[in-house]
Amino acid sequence: MKNKKNIYKTAYVLSVPLVVGLIMEVIVYMQTGGHLISSMLDIRNIIRDLGVTALIAFALSLNLGSGRFDLSLGAQRLVATIIGGNIALRLGFNGIGVLIMAILFGLLAGFVVGMIFITFRVPPVILGLGMAMVYESLAFAGSRGLGLQLFGAPNTRMLVNPNFTLMVLGLATLFVFVLFTYTKFRYEMQAMRGSQKIAKTSGINVFRHVVICYTIAGGLVAIAGVLSAAMAGALLPTLGMTSNSAVIAMTFPMFIGTYLSRRSNIALGIISASLTIRLFGFGMVALQISTALNTTINMILFIGFLAFLANRHIPDLRKREKARIKEAKAKIKERKELSLAS
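^ thats the sequence. predicted structure below, dont judge the formating
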């Protein structure tokens, strides 16, 4: 019975992008006479966008779920991909070598941020801003402003293969699924979300947990950085905190995925939410809506969703309040009847 209930919940989560895709297909067909997905190129682009979106959303969920917004994730993505990727190319590594080297630098970048956080107790937002500027400068100086150039690089064509993207995304999703389902990390995360003081009192090594979150997040954004560089042919360094734009844009699917995870797992929730957002974005492009208007619509929907999350308990609270008032009135009436009878 329990397994059957879990299957229904998982089917519900996975049906969300299907429903949104069908709605966008109908709208696109009615407005343009075309289709949401009209060629294999569209499918390839959806797979690539899904990989980048889901990986960054995974990274965000590790810290943001516990109230820590790491604003250095975008810069970690830059420094890991550019520095690690260039070292791999100079050593003659192929695409897998570039990916592995970037992951190692991403894990290191995240670990450094985590260690600074637990050592100096700097507020996460301030720490993220400072480390973002440091990592952006390192990425710029380390590549002499050229970034990572993968276009024409030998033995790296596999990175643009959508099957390779699906394989990497599948492994990352499996890792997150196991991490949040079958390890004690899951219980530590739930305790940290409630209260870090209570979690520490109950015997959880809070500082170790925080460092693990920062470290894994760094590795995940490094993977996303390599896939982004492969899609565009290059990844250029940026300064002035502009590296955050790629990460902040993924907070929407992260919040939707976290909400959907109540019926399933955070991994499946984020995958479903990421695909939903990508299909919606493809619909906007098919409808020939400008980038500025598309961004505006997404932000309005994002704010509306946050408002929904903040107020979703109000109807239940009002219902309980009415029930308590009704019960109190019934007791008062009963007491009056008893007093009159006596």
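The first helix runs from residue 2 to 32.
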